[in-house]
Amino acid sequence: MVPDALPAQVELAAPALEIACEVGETEIAFGFDPVHYRVRGFDATATGMLKVNVLASAGECFHVDTFDLYHAKARTTYFARVAAKLRVKEEMVKVDLGRVLLKPEMLQTSSALGVAHHEMSVEDRRAALDLLCAPDLLVHYRSIGATSHWKALLAP
Description:
- The chain has two domains: about 20-115, no CATH class; about 120-150, no CATH class.
- It has helices at about 70-85, 90-115, 120-135, 135-145, and strands spanning about 20-25, 25-30, 35-40, 50-60, 60-70.
- The termini are far apart.
- It has a five-stranded antiparallel sheet with strand order 1-2-3-4-5, covered by helices on one side.
- The protein is an alpha+beta fold.
- It is built from four helices and five strands, in the order E-E-E-E-E-H-H-H-H.
């Protein structure tokens, strides 16, 4: 039996939080008090992983490590090490790193939405189909040095 009212839709995109940071060409800098974070190695086009280099600093103390922000075990290790080295509470580092994780996710989402799909022109499509249907296609294949398997291409 289907209920009359369905629960509210779940928002799958990253929350629309305003996270104070400076996004540069090669790094993202976060200034949470008292700990500051710098994230490098972030690829806005890669999805499914957030392997980054994260530097946490407070005064003269710092800790830097490279890990995947999506891996819970790596994050847990990072929490403990940063808390010990910077002499701050581990719970605070967890909250900070949660915000550090959200910003690259939001950048990935906005990057994915901004990717334009380019259509082939009619002329390019016609030229590609002509090449693929050419009776001497295997000769072209052979001319580039791919000779060891060209006979296998003739097999049904």
